[in-house]
Amino acid sequence: MQILNLWKRRLGHVPPETWEQVELEELILADNGLTEVSGAIGGLKRLRMLDLGHNALEEVPQAIGELESLADFLYLHDNRLQSLPESMGRLTRLRYLNISENAFAELPEVITRLAGLVELRASDNQISSLPESISRLSRLREIHLRNNRLASLPESVGELRDLRFIDLRGNPLTALPASIAGLPALYKLDLRWTPSLALPAWVPELEARGVLVYR
C-alpha cells in the first residue's frame, strides 16, 4: 500500500508534488495549518484514506467527489467548516467520516447520500437539526453527536436498523422519537449531560432488553 504521512510538519500548504503521486492509497495531511486544499487532489484516484484533520480549512474542494475509491476513512475534524460540497455525495463507498470540531449549524444533507457509511462522528459543532433523510444511511452503526444544539431527533432515525450506538451527550434535548425504542441492533444510548430531557417512558423497555442507557 502506498502511504504518504505528512502529519504535523508545519507545512502551511500542501507541496505540489504531492498531487503527482497518483498511486497513493493513504494520505495524511493532519495538523499542518492548512487553509486550503488544491482541486488537484481529485487526481489521486486510488486514495482509500484521507486525513485533513487539525487544520484551518474553511472549505473542502469540489474535487473531493472524484475520489471514488475513498472507502476507509475521511477525517475532516478540527477545522473551520460550515458546509460540505455536493460532490461528496459521490463517495458512496466511504465507511467512516469525522466532521467533529467544526462550525456546522446543521448536519449537511449531502452526508445522507454516503450509502456505505458505518460510522459518523459530528461531535462538538453547533448542529441544531438532523435531516429526515438520515434514514438513507442504512448501514450506519454508530452516530456521535456529543456537544451540539440538538433539541430532538427526526422520527426517521428509527429506520436505521443497523444502528448500535447513539451518543447524544451534552445536547439541549427536550424530546426523543419513540422510534428509537424499535431499533433492533441498538446496544448503547448515551444521554448524559442532557438535564433538559425528561426521560422517555420507553427507556426502561430498552434497558430490559439489555441496551446500555447512560443518563
Structure description:
Strand 9, helix 1 and strand 10 form a beta-alpha-beta unit. This protein folds into 2 domains: 103 residues, Leucine-rich repeat, LRR (right-handed beta-alpha superhelix) (Alpha-Beta Horseshoe), CATH 3.80.10.10; 92 residues, Alpha-Beta Horseshoe (Leucine-rich repeat, LRR (right-handed beta-alpha superhelix)). Strands 1-2-3-4-5-6-7-8-9-10 form a 10-stranded parallel beta sheet. With 215 residues, it is mainly β. The longest helix is centred in the C-terminal third of the chain and has 6 residues. It is built from 1 helix and 10 strands.
Read across the widest sheet, the strand sequence of neighbours is: 1-2-3-4-5-6-7-8-9-10
- Helix percent reads under 10%
The quaternary structure here is single chain
What is the arithmetic mean of pLDDT? 98
Distance between the termini: 43 Å
Note poorly predicted spans. none
- SSE string: EEEEEEEEEHE
Question: Which descriptors would you attach to this protein?
Answer:
Leucine-rich repeat, LRR (right-handed beta-alpha superhelix), mainly beta, 2 domains, ten-stranded parallel β-sheet, single chain, 10 strands, 215 residues, 1 helix, elongated
In short, what is this structure?
The chain is mostly beta strands and 215 residues long. The chain is 3% helix and 14% strand.
Produce the secondary structure layout.
Elements (H helix, E strand, L loop, with lengths): L2 E3 L20 E3 L20 E3 L21 E3 L20 E3 L20 E3 L20 E3 L20 E3 L20 E3 L12 H6 L3 E3 L1
Parallel strand pairs: 1-2, 2-3, 3-4, 4-5, 5-6, 6-7, 7-8, 8-9, 9-10
